[in-house]
């Protein structure tokens, strides 16, 4: 009985496809669009130096090259990653690790699974529907023009937030973490994507808005800040988001508040809106 090593060697020489598989590994690690590496693969490979293989293997390897050029980028390995590539991959690795560690309420059976109902209440407190409905109600009830101005701008901010988050989610198309259970209340179709967290953008923007435009006692101001942090944290704890989705969302919410301040709607800029 031949030893496994001998029989594998015999098999290799009898089967030219094994060489092609080896080629496939090599070509996977080179840049398919780089003419130099394509030339290297087709002319310098051991397969091509053997005359007996020329006719059949060149068409086979051409087919393979075509297939590999069609491979999605994430299936190919880069030989010379840049510093930015390495930094991004490291950030992504830390992000995924931390996201998994912090997803303690992702399921009922998770380590903090019993806190899941409470976290879902926090989730609803940062949802768009209660905020938009609440602003519309306050606008209807408000009897001072200063109050109407503030609430109208809050409503404008909430709508702008939905649009901007929807656009970024639609462009980035990052999937939610695998441990997330999609049992969220009232979502749009883009909400299957996770970058950035809409709850985090809203929490950051609304809290800044309230701190700057409402007269609040110090304990209430602290509560508003804690609420924004808790809503953001709960996104990762519920397993809805990666840490970077929430961190970016929080940053984006602050930027959105800056936009609202810049384009502040006032009776002088939009008199028609305030005549109602
Ligand atoms: C239906 C309305 C008015 C808003 C949707 C709010 C929502 C579900 C956002 C998604 O938030 P995350 O990106 O944090 O999961």
Automatic annotation (TrEMBL):
Tell me the InterPro entries matching this sequence: PAP2/HPO (IPR000326), PAP2/HPO_sf (IPR036938)
Q: What keywords are annotated for this sequence in UniProt?
A: Endoplasmic reticulum, Hydrolase, Lipid metabolism, Membrane, Nucleus, Transmembrane, Transmembrane helix
Main localization of the protein described in the UniProt heading: endoplasmic reticulum
The EC number of this protein is 3.6.1.68
Q: Where is the composition biased (Basic and acidic residues)?
A: 41-52
Q: Which residues form the Phosphatidic acid phosphatase type 2/haloperoxidase domain?
A: 150-264
Q: What's the encoding gene here? A: plpp6.L
GO MF entries: sphingosine-1-phosphate phosphatase activity
Which BP terms does GO give this entry? phospholipid dephosphorylation
Fetch the Pfam families from UniProt: PAP2
Which superkingdom is the protein from? Eukaryota
Chain positions covered by the region annotation Disordered: 31-72
TM ranges are 150-172, 214-234, 246-265
Q: Which family does it belong to?
A: Belongs to the PA-phosphatase related phosphoesterase family.
SUPFAM superfamilies with a match to the protein in the record: Acid phosphatase/Vanadium-dependent haloperoxidase (SSF48317)
Q: Where in the cell is it found?
A: Endoplasmic reticulum membrane; Nucleus inner membrane
Naming one, the record's GO cellular component terms include: membrane
Lipid bilayer topology: Multi-pass membrane protein
Q: What is catalyzed by this enzyme?
A: presqualene phosphate + H2O = presqualene alcohol + phosphate; (2E,6E,10E)-geranylgeranyl diphosphate + H2O = (2E,6E,10E)-geranylgeranyl phosphate + phosphate + H(+); 1,2-dihexadecanoyl-sn-glycero-3-phosphate + H2O = 1,2-dihexadecanoyl-sn-glycerol + phosphate; (2E)-geranyl diphosphate + H2O = (2E)-geranyl phosphate + phosphate + H(+)
Give the protein name, as stated in the record.
Polyisoprenoid diphosphate/phosphate phosphohydrolase PLPP6
């Amino acid at each position: 009985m031949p030893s496994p090593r001998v029989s594998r060697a015999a098999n290799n020489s009898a089967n030219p496809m094994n060489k092609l598989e080896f080629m496939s590994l090599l070509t996977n690690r080179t840049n398919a669009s780089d003419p130099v590496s394509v030339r290297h693969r087709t002319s310098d490979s051991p397969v091509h130096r053997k005359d007996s293989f020329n006719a059949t293997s060149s068409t086979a390897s051409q087919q393979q090259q075509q297939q590999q050029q069609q491979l999605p980028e994430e299936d190919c390995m880069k030989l010379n990653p840049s510093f930015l590539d390495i930094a991004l991959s490291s950030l992504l690795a830390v992000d995924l690790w931390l996201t998994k560690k912090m997803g303690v309420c992702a399921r009922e059976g998770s380590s903090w699974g019993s806190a899941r109902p409470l976290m879902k209440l926090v989730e609803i407190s940062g949802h768009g529907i209660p905020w938009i409905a609440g602003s519309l109600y306050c606008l209807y009830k408000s009897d001072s023009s200063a109050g109407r101005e503030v609430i109208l701008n809050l409503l404008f901010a909430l709508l702008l937030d939905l649009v901007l988050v929807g656009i970024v989610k639609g462009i980035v198309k990052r999937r939610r973490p695998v441990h997330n259970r999609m049992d969220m209340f009232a979502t749009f179709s883009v909400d299957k994507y996770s970058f950035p967290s809409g709850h985090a953008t809203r929490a950051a923007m609304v809290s800044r808005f309230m701190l700057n435009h409402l007269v609040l006692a110090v304990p209430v101001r602290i509560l508003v800040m804690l609420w924004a942090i808790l809503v953001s944290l709960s996104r990762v704890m519920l397993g809805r988001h990666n840490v970077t989705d929430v961190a970016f969302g929080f940053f984006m919410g602050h930027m959105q508040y800056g936009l609202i301040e810049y384009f502040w709607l006032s009776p002088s800029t939009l008199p028609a809106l305030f005549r109602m």
